[in-house]
Amino acid sequence: MQNFDYMTPTRLIFGKGVISKLPEVMSSFGKKILLTYGGGSIKKIGLYDKVKELLKDSEIYELPGIQPNPKYDPSVLDGVRICKEKNIDVILSVGGGSVLDCTKAIAAGAKYDGDPWDLISYKVKAKAALPIVDIITLAATGSEYDSGGVISRTETNDKIGYVDSLLYPAVSFLDPTYTFTVSKKQTAAGCADAMNHIMEQYFCEDSTLLNDGFMEAGLKSLMVNARKCLDNPEDYTARAEMMLDCTYGCNGIYALGNSASGWPCHGMEHALSAYYDITHGEGLAIITPRWMKHILSDKTVDRFVKYGVNVFGIDSNLDKFDIANKAIDETYKFFESIGIPMHLKDVGIDESRLGEMAHHVAENEGLENAWAPLNEQDILDIFKASL
Amino acid sequence: MQNFDYMTPTRLIFGKGVISKLPEVMSSFGKKILLTYGGGSIKKIGLYDKVKELLKDSEIYELPGIQPNPKYDPSVLDGVRICKEKNIDVILSVGGGSVLDCTKAIAAGAKYDGDPWDLISYKVKAKAALPIVDIITLAATGSEYDSGGVISRTETNDKIGYVDSLLYPAVSFLDPTYTFTVSKKQTAAGCADAMNHIMEQYFCEDSTLLNDGFMEAGLKSLMVNARKCLDNPEDYTARAEMMLDCTYGCNGIYALGNSASGWPCHGMEHALSAYYDITHGEGLAIITPRWMKHILSDKTVDRFVKYGVNVFGIDSNLDKFDIANKAIDETYKFFESIGIPMHLKDVGIDESRLGEMAHHVAENEGLENAWAPLNEQDILDIFKASL
Cβ A209–B225 below 8 Å, yes or no? Predict the structure, then answer.
């Protein structure tokens, strides 16, 4: 078991109707609010109007139009500019993980005098950040309970996971009813995203009985509840369970004391969605089983056996490579069964830039230090197997 | 799934040698420290000297002699007096859960002008508390990651769980090597305490797949690792896993979204240890299987089936009451197998005051509102079955 230093100071306010606490929470941070959101789905479900009504005594400025795979330019830069010009006290992110990720970068940039890219690219460590409150409308990334965000810079095909303990949301509002209208595509992609967050922590050298049990429970709960959400989008209990399942995914609590895994599938997927702007969860679902097949070896097989037996109930008496291969097949089949396109070509990626992307990943993601080390050729092989 | 509002702001610094961070942590809170501890075991293992050496630039006052089942008089009162007289900045608790529980009451009392019992008895809500740092030397109560403490008042036989969100430790240091010298008796009692914390949350009306999986993992990990600690007290990995298992026990994270259980075994055990000053974990281990037998019914049986199948691996094809009864027997046998005295008479309690204690519990613990409601006669029956 490895040493660790852990704290999550975020307050989770969870359940139907909890938004009634919003005015009290926001007023504790100040009067000037930057409201960040995406493409308008929060208007369709009435949440935008509700927020404006609840905060009618505050001074609200708005940054709409934040895209999936949120962009440094214009979103982060515009947000930072507004915060500085209007002397914003607190940012309220309303939407999914992309809106919140972008909000985190804005929160740090707002308290920094130079180019915010200095912070995101780790050239400079932030000294402060504006407080962040969020209302989450998509069960997926877990950004509501972690200190990181992923920001894309289109002109350089960079997609960087920017992590800093200053970036934990102060308060996250999670009302499962806001996810009732999430499409089947996004529900499935959110499930795949959260499952991959867990797998990225599960597959490592040194884990504990407790962490393994936590993560196996998280994976099983996600699979059961995502299916229920797809069958009946207004199943409150299933939406609620899936929402909390996703919240823990990136928080680190699943891997306290574990050795580092290197998060290889995220490293590879970030190139796919940076170059092609695909849905992150779909990219992960496509990559994950191919990565598993590629790294299966005498060194790694025992983890796959544990995963197969405890998550999919595969007979523990079988040959261990049989168990491992069945577990990988079950992983693929589950993603396929919830409607995720399982080939790169299904999401508009052909072989033309695979080499370029593999090179970019090998240069930038440090996967030669992952639990199962990957060099440029390994990455290219995994991409080709995913076509 | 129930609504919830959750935050744990405690920083966990975990692992061998982490105490080297103590000076930096303490100095962030100020110079004047009240050092609280118990009967001297921290001197035997060299921890007292180490702390004094690391904090040689601070101004340290001491409150030694805090007992198990910590007492309002003299410990809480003495601590509050020192904090006020010396204008203490931060309290450093070094020891097990009892020292930390006492420290929490002192931290609140130090910032209150009246009688600290007003706070502990919930007559007055605390408005502030001194910051608390702890170094835990016993895997058991989970006080290092929760906001409560249990305080006993001898003259009235009161034993009150005092909970307030102001009482989360700011920082908890957890070095498993400090538990190498914990006796077999206390190792087993700590395991039983933590297991009961989980069971008190598991047995309720409404749980989630995720919470059930978390708690089943916690129970299984505690059983495996406690056995290893008893077999080899210096097994670092087992001590470390058991330590983290215990840390989550009382934190609430296991039951986010669950309906209330009423914590019935704690309600009953608090009378036993208030009247007879027995070891809390032993009292819980004695009460728990008798409580289970007493409340087993058509209404409760399905939870016991899940518990039996998932925690003890009992064949799910058996009759459900057979599974439930086997699960209860396995619970008893596990506690017995790790050396816990399993009868009240083994810990010095005879039948003379059972009626008085049952009356006290019925009057003070609200168990008529528990998942499986208990009246005074039920409580007395459980006590008698435990003799």
Answer: yes
Nearest by Cα to A163 from A263, A91, A291: A263
Q: ipTM value of the model?
A: 0.96
| Rounded distance between C-alpha atoms, residue B95 and residue B41, angstroms | 8
Look at the domain A182-385 and name its fold: Dehydroquinate synthase-like, alpha domain (1.20.1090)
In contact, A57 and A23? CB cutoff 8 Å: yes
CB–CB contact A15 B7 (8 Å)? no
Q: Residue B9: its chain A contacts at CB < 8 A?
A: 7, 9
A177 contacts in chain B (CB < 8 Å)? none
Fold (topology level) of B183-385: Dehydroquinate synthase-like, alpha domain (1.20.1090)
Whether residues A220 and B213 touch (CB distance < 8 A) is answered with yes
A241:B9 CB<8 A? no
- A1 and B240 in contact by Cβ < 8 A? yes
- Residue environment code for A284-311, b if the CB has 16+ CB neighbours within 10 A, otherwise e: bbbbbbbbbbbbbeeebbebbbbbbbbb
User: Which residues in chain B are contacts of A14 at CB distance < 8 A?
Assistant: 3-6, 256-257
DSSP states of A278-301? --HHHHHHHHHHHHHHHH-STTTH
Contacts of B218 in chain A (CB under 8 A): 210, 213
Give me the tens of pLDDT residue by residue for chain B, a chain 387 residues long: 999 999 999 999 999 999 999 999 999 999 999 999 998 899 999 999 999 999 999 999 999 999 998 999 999 999 999 999 999 999 999 999 999 999 999 999 999 999 999 999 999 999 999 999 999 999 999 999 999 999 999 888 888 999 999 999 999 999 999 999 999 999 999 999 999 999 999 999 999 999 999 999 999 999 999 999 999 999 999 999 999 999 999 999 999 999 999 999 999 999 999 999 999 999 999 999 999 999 999 999 999 999 999 999 999 999 999 999 999 999 999 999 999 999 999 999 999 999 999 999 999 999 999 999 999 999 999 999 999
Pick the CATH number of A11-178 from 3.30.40.10, 3.40.50.1970, 3.40.50.150, 3.20.20.70: 3.40.50.1970
Does this model's pTM top 0.90? yes
How far apart CA A346 and CA A377 sit, in angstroms, is 23
The minimal CB distance from A213 to the residues B18, B216, B237 is found for B216
Q: How many A-B residue pairs are in contact by the CB < 8 A criterion? A: 134
